[in-house]
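does this look right to u?? NAP version
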Amino acid sequence: MSLFPDATLPEIEEAMRAAEEAFQQYQHTTPAQRRDFLQVVADLLEAAGDDLLQVAMRETHLPEARLRAERGRTAFQLRQYGQAAASGLHLDLRIDTANADRIPQKPDLRKMMVPLGPVVVFGASNFPFAYSTAGGDTASALAVGCPVVVKAHPAHPATSQAVAELVLKAAGLTRMPDGVFQHLHGVDNRVGEALVTHPLTRAVGFTGSYRGGKALFDLAACRDTPIPVFAEMGSVNPIFALPGRMKAHAAELAVQYVASLTLGVGQFCTNPGIVVAIANDSMECWAEKLQTELENIPSGNMLHEGIARQYHEGVQAMMAQAGVARLAAGQNPAGEQQGQAMMARVSAASFLANPALMHEVFGPFALLVVCTDVHEMMAVANQFGGQLTCTIWALEEELERHSSLLHLLAGKCGRLLFNGVPTGVEVCDAMQHGGPFPATTDNRFSSVGADALRRFTRPLCFQNFPEPLLPLPLRNNNAEGWLRLINGKPSYDSL
Ligand code: NAP
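got this back:
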């Protein structure tokens, strides 16, 4: 029998009931109380020391340094989201006072964001800490007052279990209601399906494949009461290389690109899987440098067997497409679990004729799409669906001259980069991690940065309420000094 058996239907029922019961109390905790809870989770996570890293290393094949950094990022996220909640910014407080002299009379209206209710979070395989059990989705939901039920990713159940125990301990230490956080295992898809379709589930957070995210989104949409599914799915994060920048920095760009493509064996959602360039000597110079750089990259173990298998199949399928030729490859793999870095090239004409070439191959695989001129580059850009990021390599004056490319790409992604590479997602207020479908299922929101909290709230307006019965943030006395829009003007004052 498995050490981590799948949750049964009665266990799922019990978990959702407990989450709903917890919600009745948890939604009324103050943002400061929730900040303290998340702070203790972060402290315990850091105090768990190397033992936890060893468990994660065994399960994910990720190196210790990466896991250590990811755990640090997860603790930072928990603290930052807790502080964001305490700042009250996500509450979007608005007060429009009554006007009895107006005809008709204007009522007193006060609006704030309130928590949705129990949230189901699917752990992501490629971020065993930062987007799993106590990761960004969990931290966002807990920060705004939603209980969380985590479905552990089956590729790292022991890591997930160990982190879950820390969250439960933190909940006990900070006296959060029972059921505020629960953790279930599920190798069988039916566990996830039962959680998404459970009537008490109010929202879902997911990071993973298009197939998985879209399946869960469709299930949620077909419920008697549909609920939002915030799924972050595939993205090829195209880079558009204009000739001026290529000419001035070909070698530097090649080095930077190879490092980004092969980071973490390419298993990042912001991995830059397609470069679109214009055929000329600078591009060939870039490709030559890229070849020598890539040749030195060792193959690395991928996260789990399924991801490695899908990578090999994906690369094979790409290489079999018409007009696709191998450009460069990393060192040979030592076994089936390893992913060998690989880049192929294809003409823009072949690319435009074959939509299969736009599919993400999750791992260190990339395609160089060679255009005859900027017009063809525009046609290629136009072909892309929604992306998490788009990058333009250009000189400043080139960017000005090609503003139509810039505007086209702005409509395709959530984060637009001028030079640089898209890997490395800063956790901060101005970050946007989410793009038009199919990159995510709802591009109005971000899953990284304090704006991630907004996904799990909804607006509630109070009309003509007796002042003492209003929630604290909407009362006349602004005891916490929160920012509020009062009769159209931003204010930190009391009324
Ligand atoms: P996944 O297959 O999408 O699985 C993610 C989670 O969702 C797992 O817990 C999985 O459970 C569950 N799930 C998937 N399909 C489901 C369904 N139809 N019903 C209920 N639950 C479902 O992702 P993965 O295992 O991490 O990796 C597989 C592929 O996903 C990769 O090769 C890659 O293409 C993509 N991926 C993308 C990202 C990204 O950042 N966008 C990150 C990681 C992976 P089960 O495992 O039990 O099915």
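The first helix runs from residue 9 to 26. idk if thats expected tbh
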